[in-house]
Specification:
Length: 168
């Protein structure tokens, strides 16, 4: 019993000295990644953000089909791999550009429209009214979720889903 108390005491010291650094790093990931300011920026400036992304990457859009979507996500995955080498604060602008780009494609090819949601406790935006079985998408939330947790293939599946379930 005495040895156990001694081992626990030593572990406590290690946790206090080294564990706090790890806990602080982990707690940073708990911050809200997509902020109200980001939603405002995407909603009010989606055309400019989209154009900036197209100019920066040279991405080509010739329609809304699997071939185009595959090509877009080759570029998007390449860009996010580069962004992940830095910190999240530096990646935010380009993540907004990607969200605006994807949203604008939903508007152009599926007849969607941008919406802005604002309540006392929450602000967001996205595209709604698309001619698909899944008519809406919070583009920024999906892109940030793909960047921080789920991977860009998850984002691609969301876009492909809208293509595959479009109403003709």
């Amino acid at each position: 019993e005495q040895e156990l108390i001694q081992v626990l005491g030593e572990m406590k010291d290690v946790l206090i000295k080294k564990g706090m650094k790890i806990l602080v790093e982990l707690s940073k990931g708990l911050e809200e990644p997509d902020t109200a300011e980001m939603y405002r920026e995407v909603y009010f400036h989606h055309d400019e953000l989209c154009e900036k992304f197209i100019e920066k990457t040279g991405i080509v859009v010739t329609g809304f089909d699997e071939e185009n979507i595959d090509r877009w996500f080759e570029v998007i995955e390449e860009r996010t791999a580069i962004l992940k080498q830095g910190d999240y604060e530096d990646a935010k602008e380009e993540l907004m550009e990607i969200a605006a780009f994807l949203g604008n494609q939903l508007v152009k090819y599926l007849g969607g429209r941008w919406f802005h949601y604002l309540s006392e406790n929450h602000e967001s935006c996205g595209v709604e009214g698309c001619k698909t079985l899944n008519p809406g998408l919070n583009c920024l939330s999906v892109v940030v979720g793909g960047y921080t947790e789920n991977g860009m293939n998850w984002v691609k599946k969301s876009i492909l889903n809208r293509y595959q379930k479009r109403k003709i």
